[in-house]
Amino acid sequence: MTARHDAVRQALAAAGTFVSAQDLHAQLRAAGDRIGLTTVYRALSAMAEAGEADVLTVDGQQVYRACGSGEHHHHLVCRSCGKTVEVSGPAVERWAEAMGRQHGFADVTHTLEIFGTCGDCAARPAAAAARSRA
Question: I want to staple 18 with a disulfide (CB 3.0 to 4.6 A). Which of 52, 65, 75, 108 is the partner?
Answer without folding.
Answer: 65
